[in-house]
């Protein structure tokens, strides 16, 4: 199998502060990682595609200046929620694509619960 | 844009019985992939089964099988001999290689397994 970790698993912050969430592929290299957002009892919504060594590709309606993504190595992508507000409170999930071809599986991290007070 | 629809927000099944979860999708592409993911209370997403659109044979993984009807754009998941550990939220997902492997998820079906 393949393992993807996220850190932290839970974070509580004050409104106006920035929060960084890390996504690591522990036993494989991932050129491509994805960031999702999930509200309670709802589906996963893709926020952006993170490509190692290049700028992230954001989905329509996602503010790239609000959600900064950096994919600096083949095993690490970070999502920074800048100037967080209560409406940013959500469950954030990353996934990492193992291999170069699509039919290789996406492996998901355990998620990070962000609460903004 | 591709859409994925799961019309059953909640389903329940008795332990050891069989249950079928429904999924329909909309696409103009001919080459794509379909997935069923399981999300238990831990929120960890787990791949249950995958189907390549170019394959006519329905995918199976132990107690899990799919009924893939390409013309009808339907992709249902059958769980046989349901176990208590099958209780979870199940998401149907669609993806294309041409779109960079991005996945579109359905709304999810919450499955309850009754002892």
Question: How is this structure best described in words?
Answer:
The complex is a heterodimer of chains A (117) and B (115). Chain A has 117 residues and is mostly beta strands. In chain A, 0% of the residues lie in helices and 52% in strands. In chain A, a hairpin with a 5-residue loop joins strand 4 (32-38) and strand 5. The model of chain A has no long low-confidence stretch (mean pLDDT 92). The mean pLDDT of chain B is 94. Chain B has 115 residues and is mainly β. In chain B, the strands form three sheets. In chain B, strands 2, 5, 6, 10, 11 and 12 form a six-stranded mixed β-sheet that branches. Chain B has a four-stranded antiparallel β-sheet with strand order 3-9-8-7, with no helix packed on it. Chain B is globular and about 45 Å long. In chain B, 35% of the residues are buried. Chains A and B meet through strand 4, strand 5 and strand 9 of A and strand 6 and strand 11 of B.
Overall pLDDT level of chain A: 92
Largest interface (CB < 8 Å): A-B, 22 and 22 residues
What gross morphology of chain A would you assign? Answer: globular
Q: What separation lies between the terminal Cα atoms of chain B?
A: 41 Å
The multimeric state of the shown protein is: heterodimer
User: Topology as H/E string of chain B?
Assistant: EEEEEEEEEEEE
Distance N to C terminus of chain A:
37 Å
Low-confidence parts of chain A lasting 5 or more residues at pLDDT below 50?
none
Q: What structural category arises from helix and sheet content of chain A? A: mainly beta
Number of helical runs of chain B?
Answer: 0
